[in-house]
Design a protein that fits this description.
This protein has one domain: 2,3-Dihydroxybiphenyl 1,2-Dioxygenase, domain 1. The longest helix is centred in the N-terminal third of the chain and has 11 residues. The protein is an alpha+beta fold and 226 residues long. The protein is 15% helix and 40% strand. It has a seven-stranded mixed sheet, covered by helices on one side.
């Protein structure tokens, strides 16, 4: 599943932009009052101030894939700029079932970012880590909801199926290229002290179209346009 575009909310786009362009080194695609877009490999990431100005303290969890052999260098690069998350005395997350290593950190707006090296992918490179080249894509976006099984069933109708783990409170869907992390609202995000809260998300998935995801009283709603 290829995530081509991700659009999320922020309170102050102008103050956040330098973190992504100057510190992370992502290429600026577009910037205007109230929003900006950067390129992360094959994905575009847009931060948009709510049109009504009704900002609700939104924060999101999303991940960038990096070459599978570059986590040590990427960790050294990111921790020279920002603190990285720790858990149980370690600052590197290893998933045996996913065969991946990750590090977690936050941007100035409180979004939880992850650099993930997936050893199931043949994308290693034989050169020093370079963020401009080696942030390959947005490969995960968190989708919290109070009704995980119902949401997963609706996504399955669109052809987005469970990845590795199916449970009532944590159910990633998609594949190694791109995942929606469908989790129960209130569940703690890994390597942080923050809980998963539901905020609107817009994304474009290759060969599927644009989706607008929003939690309502009835559960997660999925609006789709081609």
């Amino acid at each position: 599943m290829i995530i081509e575009k991700l659009v999320i909310a922020t309170a102050d786009a102008a103050s956040l932009q330098p973190f992504y362009t100057d510190r992370l080194g992502l290429t600026l695609v577009h910037s205007e009052r109230g929003s900006f877009t950067v390129r992360a490999g094959w994905s575009e990431l847009t931060f948009q101030e709510p049109a009504s100005g009704d900002y609700q303290g939104e924060y999101y969890h999303f991940a960038f894939t990096i070459p599978e052999n570059k986590l040590p260098e990427a960790k050294q690069w990111i921790e020279s700029m920002v603190p990285i998350g720790t858990e149980a005395g370690t600052d590197i997350s290893f998933s045996e079932s996913w065969n991946s290593h990750s590090v977690y950190f936050e941007d100035p707006a409180g979004n939880i970012l992850e650099l993930i090296a997936r050893h199931t992918m043949s994308n290693g490179v034989d050169r020093p880590f370079d963020a401009k080249q080696d942030i390959l894509c947005i490969s995960e976006i968190g989708v919290p909801t109070l009704g995980v099984p119902a949401a997963v069933n609706r996504f399955a109708e669109l052809g987005i199926l469970t990845y590795k783990t199916r449970s009532s409170d944590f159910n990633p869907i998609g594949d190694d290229n791109g995942l929606l992390m469908v989790v129960e609202t209130g569940r703690r995000w890994h390597f942080t002290n923050k809980t998963a809260e539901s905020f609107p998300v817009r994304l474009k998935i290759q060969e599927l179209g644009e989706l607008y995801l929003k939690e309502e009283e009835s559960g997660l709603t999925i609006e789709m346009t081609k």
